[in-house]
Amino acid sequence: MARNTDRIRTTHVGSLVRPAALIEYLRKIADNEPYDKGAYEACLTGSVAEAVRRQAEAGIDIVSDGEYGKSVNWAFYVHRRLQGLERRPLTAEEAKDPMNIVLGGRDREAFPEFYAEYDARVLRNASAPVRPVVTGPLSYCGQAELQHDIKNLKAGLAKVKVEGAFLPVVAPASALPNAKLEHYRDEESFLFALAEALRDEYRAIIDAGLDVQVDDAFLPYVYEKLVPPMTLAQYRRWAELRIAALNHALEGLPLERTRYHICWGSWNGPHMFDVPLKDIVDLVLRVNAGAYSFEAANPRHEHEWKVWKDVKLPDDKILIPGLIAHSTNVVEHPELVAERLLRFAGIVGRERVMAGTDCGFSQSPLAGRVHRTIMWAKLKSLAEGARIASKQLWN
Length: 395
Description:
The protein is α/β, with parallel strands linked by helices. The protein has 13 helices and ten strands. The protein has helices spanning about 20-30, 35-60, 105-110, 110-120, 145-155, 170-175, 185-205, 220, 225, 230-250, 280-285, 335-350, 370-395, and strands spanning about 60-65, 80-90, 130-140, 165-170, 180, 210-215, 260, 290-295, 320-325, 355. The strands form two sheets. Strands 1-4-6-7-8-9-10 form a seven-stranded parallel sheet. The chain has a three-stranded mixed sheet with strand order 2-3-5, with helices on one face.
């Protein structure tokens, strides 16, 4: 990631709320209903171009395709791009596994009434739970689908003037968090094989002239599912193995073209049992990426900006703190965005802070976290806040 020279640059985590016309097709795809494939492709191409244009108009410097080409969520899209996998219905016994992405966790145990209502609303379109099973050697087979995403993003970029663009990808820890292993002898051999497969996707994006953002929500998120019974030390060993696998996937890629995103799960629930940033920040900094994107705007984690006072950020890295939240329809005031930016700039320097968002606005095609019109207003507020902070920092 290039350093700022005369102003704070802006970006976001990647996923955007899909337009209504595209959602119609995505619902049919999710429900295995017939649809006009030519019309869908035209709608997808046009939707990506519109998303790129509107990001540019909002004042975003480094834009994405909104993840519009992913027909499932930010992490499990990759299941279609990997050979060596099967998907089987989740058994009742497997549903008790703490790594299950829907059930379990201390937040759910503490607020069962809330989650009963929340799940009925948010998961109303969810299909029957399945579990990926690794039945053979893992390899990447998603080249055509990935090139399709790249082509659509580049077509949109040709019509605007922005500083750069990126595509989000999934980290090894988040790609197959609850996979059943029937081929690899242990977790380590599985995770490193997965990392080698994912590297093909990472490198193809770099080779296309785009930046890579590695999304790893599961690394912090599963803490509240695993601890207890795990201790913090045991959880950290669990995380260390997955970070080692990610670094294996990033090996050989240019540092300045990669960024690493973590969050504590995107849902707008209590989050009372999230792992504190201070307990994992050293692990995050072990990731060989040029920039670190993290939540810093939501009320559960905003106070953790102070952690960076006690942490030495490597000289060749930058921070992308979230300055607007994906979990509320309240539009942050630009002055508040500027205040948040100035905190980080005061710690690591104005050259090493980029304005970002807490998380994506729509973690799957049909799971928008805010209204689409409010999303654009939030991004405009982010850019305006960056301009306000820049005037103070470069006065």
